Amino acid sequence: MIMFDRRYFRYFDWISFLLTIILLGLGLLFVFSATYRQNLPLSIFFKKQLLGIASGLVIYFVFCMIDIQRLARWGFVCYWITLILLMYSMVGGWIAMGAKRWVSLYFIRFQPSELAKLFLPVFFASYFTDLETPKYYAYPPIPFKDFLLPLGFLFFSFVLILKQPDLGTALLVLLSGLVMLWFIGIPTKFFILLGMVSVLGMPVLWKVLKPYQQNRILVLFGYGDARKERYQIEQSKIAIGSGGVTGKGFLQGTQNKLEFLPEDHTDFIFSVACEEFGLLGALTIILLYIALFARLVFVIMGVQNFFEQIVALGLLIHILLSVCINIGMVTGMLPIVGIPLPLLSYGITNLWIVLASLGWLNNIAIRRFYY
Length: 371
Known about the structure:
This protein is mainly alpha-helical. It has helices at residues 6-11, 14-35, 44-65, 75-92, 112-130, 148-162, 167-184, 188-200, 202-208, 211-220, 231-242, 254-257, 269-301, 306-330, 348-370, and strands at residues 94-96, 99-104, 109-110.
């Protein structure tokens, strides 16, 4: 564990922490706006989000103090527990919106799939550290057979999450894992082969998808009724476009206030921000994310320990992909796959996992100088 002394606060990455706080504040503002109704008390969503931020910041600092080297021996255990919870959620999970994605502990419900985002990097780092892989830029090529076990776990996790069904999170975990394996050194020809198999297997993959998932892909290419299949994305585009350059003003958005925009406080929170604060508001949010990611990339580039490099990359990539996919889907450039916007969207489990990841990244930033 890291001891508290003046060095800890000196090496603490205040820049990424400040950017995180700003995004959290904006997210709380937009959740309030999306759930605000005149002459009604504060919504339960706003209160829960406020509580989630308070508890999430505690989680942030807890993960900021964890000695991640000690987690090397627990990597397999943490991910095994996640897989067990994923399997349990398919049988005894709490059902909402037609999916068994949640595990109920009576006092709280959470999505085990979110834990996969947090512990997959530790699992990979533990596995390849056990192989005694030297530092980055110094190790010889790793034999492909050493990638088979991580690949097996990765695709097994993908299938478990996909069966909940949760296509968005399943794809996010799969893509994050593949990026990490590419960073570690899996041969490029594997990705070429995977791409060829995916293209040839598209008819089979299409049959595996649920009807509503097929409709979401078709909507991307302009198919579907504007009052049925295309309703959600059409309302999102109307909200974004009606905001103009400067927006309609805080609490003045009509698409969410008149309840035309579904899931306005969760997956489509960016549409609410665009309607009320316009293009300038949207650009401000995007620039804040770019600044946060640029700062974290700068931190990762300064890490010399191979274990910490893998963990840091894995923690960063799932947040980065979430931002890109969410903004892409609410603007109609990607299919709607139900991925929230990190730090802005309502959702306690996702908020906790993102803050845990950012706290862990700050931990790695501190360790560059502390030891």
